[in-house]
Amino acid sequence: MSQVDTQLEETKAQIESEIPDDISVTDVKYEGPELVVYTRHPKEFAGNGDLVRRLASKLRKRITIRPHPDVLSDPTEAEGRILSVIPEEAGVTDLDFHQDTGEVVIEAEKPGMVIGRHGSTLREITQEVGWTPEVVRTPPIESSTVSNVRNFLKQEREERRDILERVGRQIHREEMADDQWVRITTLGCCREVGRAAFVLNTAETRILVDCGDKPGSDGEVPYLQVPEALGAGAQNIDAVVLTHAHLDHSALLPLIFKYGYDGPIYCTEPTRDLMGLLTLDYLDVANKEGRTPPYESSQVREAIKHTIPLEYGDVTDIAPDVKLTFHNAGHILGSAVSHFHIGDGLYNVCFSGDIHYDDTRLFNGAVNDFPRVETLVMESTYGGRNDYQTDQEDSERRLVEVINEAHDRGGKVLIPAFAVGRSQEMMLVIEEAMRSGKIPEMPVHLDGMIWEATAIHTTYPEYLRDELRDRIFHEDENPFLADQFNHIDGGEEERQDVADGGPCIILSTSGMVTGGPIMSWLRHLGGEEESILTFVGYQAQGTLGRRIQNGWEEIPVQNRNGSGRTDTLTLKMDVETVDGFSGHADRQGLENFVKTMNPRPEKVLCVHGDERSVQDLSSALYHDYNMRTFAPKNLETFRFK
Amino acid sequence: MSQVDTQLEETKAQIESEIPDDISVTDVKYEGPELVVYTRHPKEFAGNGDLVRRLASKLRKRITIRPHPDVLSDPTEAEGRILSVIPEEAGVTDLDFHQDTGEVVIEAEKPGMVIGRHGSTLREITQEVGWTPEVVRTPPIESSTVSNVRNFLKQEREERRDILERVGRQIHREEMADDQWVRITTLGCCREVGRAAFVLNTAETRILVDCGDKPGSDGEVPYLQVPEALGAGAQNIDAVVLTHAHLDHSALLPLIFKYGYDGPIYCTEPTRDLMGLLTLDYLDVANKEGRTPPYESSQVREAIKHTIPLEYGDVTDIAPDVKLTFHNAGHILGSAVSHFHIGDGLYNVCFSGDIHYDDTRLFNGAVNDFPRVETLVMESTYGGRNDYQTDQEDSERRLVEVINEAHDRGGKVLIPAFAVGRSQEMMLVIEEAMRSGKIPEMPVHLDGMIWEATAIHTTYPEYLRDELRDRIFHEDENPFLADQFNHIDGGEEERQDVADGGPCIILSTSGMVTGGPIMSWLRHLGGEEESILTFVGYQAQGTLGRRIQNGWEEIPVQNRNGSGRTDTLTLKMDVETVDGFSGHADRQGLENFVKTMNPRPEKVLCVHGDERSVQDLSSALYHDYNMRTFAPKNLETFRFK
Ligand SMILES: [Zn+2]
Ligand SMILES: [Zn+2]
Ligand SMILES: [Zn+2]
Ligand SMILES: [Zn+2]
Ligand SMILES: [Zn+2]
C-alpha cells in the first residue's frame, strides 16, 4: 500500500471517529487539492449543521461530500424536487446529472439564489435528493468560449477525474527532501516585456509560473529547455500557475503539454476561459500569417482539461510544501497576484503578475495585503522614472471631447482596442457618458473578439469591481447589455452599412493595428476627414499603430478582392491619442503597491519591464524603502532560503 | 555518415593537400582533444622539418602522428635502435611497445634527454624505427601511486582509447544551440569552506568544476541532485574540470561515475595521481571509522581512466564552444587556475581554485595573466579583514628556534602535517636550515602518506618552483633525497626505536590530529617534557588539534592493544604554533592577485570562505577596485552573457 493510500485510510478512520455512528463513510479520495468523502448518508451529512465545516478545519483540508452511487435518487424525479427547492427567480437554465460522482450541475442566471445564504439552499437540495449540487452562471450574454469550455469539460469528465485523482495524490505525497531551500529561476521577461516565465523551486517541488510569448519578437520564447525548467523532463514540473490570460503570460502554456507535461494548471476560472480564447486566436493568427504555430489546438484543450480553477482568497495546497493563494490584481478579468507559502512557515513569495494599483471602472485595485511575504516578484512595465500617466478622470474628459467633436461634424470615432480588458473599460466609459448626457446617444459597434470577451466578463461578475458586479446582478442595469452596443457579426456588408450611416463609435481589434477587422475599418473610413481615429492603448515600436501615431499617412492595406495585392491608402482621418486607460499601474501605482504593501517585503525582483524601467524601479525602491532590490537577467537563479 | 565523420573526411583531404604526395595518410581520428593522423610514412613525417607544426596551426588542432600498424618495425629490433639514439645519461628504465597505436612509451630518469632540443631526439627515434615515442619520468623516489596509475592505464588501454575517441567526437561535434549565454551555478563552497562544486553552463555545454566534500560536516555534500547539475541525468554533463586534488575539491568526483557519468575529467597529471591517492585514503578512513563511503574504489579507477591530463598553458578544446587552459595556482602540486574561453570571443571565466599568490619554497606564485577575463570565481579562505599572515621568513625563523630549543634540551619536535603540500614545504625548510647550519643535523622521520606524496612531487618536477625543479633535475641536489629524511615504514616497532632514540624531527599525518600515525606518536612522546608538539597548519574547529592548541592536556587515545577502549593521555610536551606556512594566499595575497591581474576582471564571485571572509573580500574588492563583486549563496545561478 502506498504512503498516500495509508494516509487516506487514516483520514477515513479519523472522519468516522468524528461523525455520528449512523452516518457511513464508504470511501475517501483526493481530487486535486480537495478531499472527497463518499457516503451512503448524504442527506444526513447535509442536515447535520456545520459538520463538514468542522471536519475541514479539523483535517485542514477542503472537503466535498458525495453520495455513494447506490443511494442516488432517480434523476427525473430529482429534477422536479430540485426545481421546487430553488426560487424561480434564480432562472435555472440547465440541470446536468452525473451518475459517476453523484453531482448535479445547475446552470442558473442567478447562481446566488441557488446557493442561498451561507449555502443553505444547496444543503436543502442535498437533503431533498441526495445529489451534490454544483452551480455555474448562465452567461448573460451568450459566450461561445464559455459554452465550448463547459461542453468540452463535460465530455472529458472521466479523464478529468483521473487527472484530478492523480494530481491529488501528488499534492498529498509524503515529502521526500531532507533539505530546505527556496529558489526562483528566471526564464523570461527580465529586462524586457514579454515571455513571462519563472520557476519557483523548493527542495521538494518545482512550479512553473506563467509561460508567455514575446509579441513583436522573432521567436524569442521563454528558456524552457534549460534543465531547471523542462530540460530535465516535463514530468519534473509539479504544477503550473498562470497569473492571467494575456498572451505574454499564457501563449506557450499549451506547448508544455506537447513536451509531455501532464500536471495541473492553477488559475482563476475566467483566466482559463480567456486563455482558451486567446491561445486559439494566437494559433489562428499564426496560420493566417503563414507561420507554423508551435502547437496545435489539441494542446489548448489539454491545457483546459488540466486546469484546476481557484477563487481569490482560497488557500490551496498545490504541493506537499506549497500553498497557493490568488488575490485580485486589478489588471484584466481573473488576473491574480499569486502568493506562495512555502514549507511550514519557511518562506513566502509573491508574484505580482501584471497589476493595476488603483480602482478602475472594471476592477478593484490590486490586493497587497498578505499574512507574510519575504520576496516580491514585481512587474515594472511603467517602472521608468518618467512613466507617470494621466489620471483616468482627465483621460475620460478628453475622450468625451473627441467623441463630441466627431459627432458635431457628422463623423465617426474609430478606436483600435484590445479585446480583453481595455475594450470593456471603454464600453463602461462610453455607456456612462451617454447615460449622463455628456455625449449624444449613438450606436457603439464592437468588432473582432470584443463581443466575445465582453460575454466572458459578464459570466464572471464576481471578478469585477464591486459596484459593477452589483449592477450586473440586477440584470436591467447591466451596462454591457445597453441598447447602444451592437455586435458586428454581419461581416463586410454590415461594416459597409455602418460606414454609410451617421455618427457612431467603433471599437475594433487589433489594438495595435497589426491586423484584424480594424484594417477593414481603415479602408472604409480612412478617407473621411470628419472622422477621428483614436488611440487609447499602448502602441509598440514597429506596429502600424505606432507609425500612424507618428504621422504616417500612406497606409498599406490588403486589396479588397482578396488577390493578396497591397494597395496604399491615404489616411485623411484626424488622429488622436488619449492616454491613461492602461491596465498597468504607472510608476506611482507600482511604488504605491510596494509602499503600502502589508507586510513590506524584504526583497523585490523587478521584472516585466524594459532595461531602463526595471533599473529605475529597482533603484527607487532600494533608496526609498531600503529593501534589497534586483533587476534580474533571464536565466538567473536566486536563492532565498 | 555523421557530421563528425564528414568533418574528419574533410580534414583528411585537407591534410593530404598540404603534405607532399609521397606521404600517405591512412586515417584520421579524434582522441580526446587531439587529432591523430595515421600514416604509412611516419619516418618521412618526422623527417620533414616542421610539417606537423604547420599542419597544427593550419587546422588549429593538436596533432599526433602515428604509424599505420603495417609499417611498424619489430619491437625487439626497434628497442636496440631506440636505445642507440637516446643518450645513455637519460637513464631509460622501461620501453613499452603498443602495437595497436604504434606508440612506444619510454620511461626515463631524465625525460628531457629523451626529448632533445625542441623534440629533436624524439623525431630522430621516429625516423629510425617508425614508432611514435611517448616519454614519462621514472619517479626518483619510488611511488606506488604513480606506478599503480601507470599500470592500471596500461591494462585499460583499449577501453581508454574508446573513451578518448568518444570524447573526441563529442568535443568536435557540430554546435547545436542557436542561442548564446554563459552561466555559473553554485553547488557548494559558497559562504563556507568545503564541498567546492560549480556548473559552468553555456547554451551548448555543461561543465562541472570540482566536486569536493566538506570536512568536519555531517554529510553536507555538493547539491549534485539539482537539475542544473546531475539531476537531469549525468549524461548532461559534458566535462569535468578538477582544479586540484584536495578532498574539498575532489572527494566526490568518483561518485558521479556511480551516477552514470561517462565523460572526461580534465586536470593536470599530478592532480590525477594525487586525487587517486587522496580519494582512496578517503574511502579507507571512512571504512575505518565505520561509515559507509558514498562510492567504491572501482569508481576511483573509473575517474582515473576518464582523466585527460593537461599541462599548464595548453589551450585545449573541451567542447565545441569551450577552450580550457590551466595555469599554475601555487597552492599544491598540480593545482591550477582554470581559464575558460567561451564561444568565439564571447566570454572568459576564470576559476582561481585555491591559490597562493606569493612564491613559496615549493611553488611559483599563482599566475594571473590572461589574454582576456571578464569574470573571476575567487577563493576567499583568508579573505577576512584581519586574515593577514606572518611572513614565511619570520615563520621559518621561529621554526628554527623551536627545533633548536628542543634539540638543546635533548627533545624531539613532533609536527602534525598534511601529507600533500605542507609536508613537502616543511621538508624544504628543514633541509635548507640543516644544510646551512641553522639547526643541527638530525634525522627527520616522515610518517603516514607523507613519503608517498613526496615521491609524487619528485615525479613531476616541472610543476615545482623553478629553482627547485632545477635542483631535482640534478639528482645529487634533489633536496627530497637528502640523507636525513627517513620513511617510517617499519610500523610501531620503528616508532618505538625513534622514540627511544635522541633528538629528531617527526612529520606525521593527520594534520589536524584527527587520526592516523600522529595518534601513535602522541602515545610515544606525549609524556616527554623536553619534546615540542609544533603546529604549522590550520586546525579546524572541533578537531583534536584545535583543542590541544587551546590548552587541553587530557587526550583520549585508543588503547594500544586494539581492544577499542580509549585511554586518557596526559600531555606533557610543550605545544607551539608556528603560523605562516599556509598553502592559501592571505588577505593581502588575495587582494594582490586581483589587483595585479591582467586584465582586471569586471566581476568577481567570492567563494570558498566562511560568511565573514567572502563578505569582507567582496566589499573590499568592490570599494578598492570598483568591480562588481558578489558573495553568492549555494544553489544560485549567475548569468554573464
Ligand atoms: Zn497582462
Ligand atoms: Zn504582461
Ligand atoms: Zn586546496
Ligand atoms: Zn586547502
Ligand atoms: Zn579548497
Automatic annotation (TrEMBL), chains A, B:
PROSITE patterns: KH_TYPE_1 (PS50084)
Pfam families reported in the protein's UniProt record: Beta-Casp, KH_2, KH_TffA, Lactamase_B, RMMBL
Binding sites annotated in the UniProt record for Zn(2+) 1: 244, 246, 331, 354
Enzyme Commission identifier(s): 3.1.-.-
Domain Metallo-beta-lactamase: 194-407
Region annotation Metallo-beta-lactamase N-terminus: where it falls in the sequence: 181-385
Domain K Homology stretches: 98-165
Top-level class of the enzyme under EC nomenclature: hydrolase
Region called KHb, residue ranges: 73-140
Highest taxon of the lineage: Archaea
Cofactor: Zn(2+)
Region called Metallo-beta-lactamase C-terminus, residue ranges: 583-641
One GO term of the biological process aspect: DNA-templated transcription termination
Bound cofactor: record note: Binds 2 Zn(2+) ions, which are required for nuclease activity.
Region (KHa): 5-72
Domain Beta-Casp: start-end pairs: 423-548
UniProt cross-references to CDD domains, sorted A to Z: KH-II_CPSF_arch_rpt1 (cd22532), KH-II_CPSF_arch_rpt2 (cd02410), TTHA0252-CPSF-like_MBL-fold (cd16295)
InterPro entries named among the record's database cross-references: aCPSF1, Beta_Casp, KH_dom, KH_dom-like_a/b, KH_dom_type_2, KH_sf_prok-type, MBL, Metallo-B-lactamas
Keywords per UniProt: DNA-binding, Endonuclease, Exonuclease, Hydrolase, Metal-binding, Nuclease, RNA-binding, Transcription, Transcription regulation, Transcription termination, Zinc
NCBIfam families: arCOG00543
Quaternary structure note: Homodimer. Interacts with RNA polymerase (RNAP), interacts with the Spt4-Spt5 complex.
Function description: Terminates transcription on the whole genome. Termination is linked to FttA-mediated RNA cleavage and does not require NTP hydrolysis. Cleaves endonucleolytically at the RNA exit channel of RNA polymerase (RNAP); the 5'-3' exonuclease activity of this protein degrades the nascent RNA released from RNAP.
UniProt name for this protein: Transcription termination factor FttA
Organism (species): Halorarum halophilum
Gene (name only): fttA
